[in-house]
Amino acid sequence: MTDLLLVFLKWPEPGRVKTRLANDIGAEKAAEIYRILVQRVIQRISPIYSELEGVCWVFDPIEKEYEIKDWIKKELNDLGFTDLKRHCFWSQSAGDLGERLRSAFEKAFSLGYDRIIGIGTDCIELDSLTIEQALVSLSSERSIVFGPSFDGGYYLIGMRSNLGLSVFKSISWSTSKVLKQSLDQAVSVDLDYTLLDEFNDVDTLEDWDSIRFLIE
Q1: Where are the beta strands (DSSP E) in the chain?
Q2: pLDDT tens over the chain, length 216 residues
Q3: Domain boundaries, the chain
Q4: CATH superfamily, with its number, for domain 3-214
Q5: pTM higher than 0.90 for the full model?
């Protein structure tokens, strides 16, 4: 069985990342925190890299492709991963978050991957064990898995077939309704879903203050 991890991330440009956090601490500081979050996520999930058929860094914006590749490759090299044949880089599609997720998952399925896990880079509680649990939960083509976050969204989503792509439709993204609406979509197409442990995404100053002790 071939497994792929999709890691969605952005170039840490002030004003384009962590905008809600930036409202309280400024765009420069928010971008600095985002870079730290990405670094910590890369570190915490690193034990699973060698167990997967592929790890794909799904990035935005396209014009920062070379800078993002250099950044991520340096982080991986610092962890001792010098053979990056299993790692690839895809640019995110246009559209809202649902369209970007759907596009990446569709591409992964078209390449023949069986179990696909997608994560963001806002949750430093996420680790390789969580990803392993997500993979194990995908027991059939009608399986789907979510890693719920305290704000009503999710930090992880995984599926075994394109039957799960419907969960990206008609979702009120960036609201507390995201997970609930996605679960409703899953039920409507008779998918069996699993919920992992609930973790905290860092979007606001309150979120950052709640987890910064894990970093500093």
Answers
A1: 3-10, 54-60, 87-91, 115-119, 143-148, 154-159, 192-195
A2: 699 999 999 999 999 999 999 999 999 999 999 999 999 999 999 999 989 999 999 999 999 999 999 999 999 999 999 889 999 999 999 999 999 999 999 999 999 999 999 999 999 999 999 999 999 999 899 999 999 999 999 999 999 999 999 999 999 998 999 999 999 999 999 999 999 999 998 888 888 888 877 666
A3: 3-214
A4: Spore Coat Polysaccharide Biosynthesis Protein SpsA; Chain A (3.90.550.10)
A5: yes
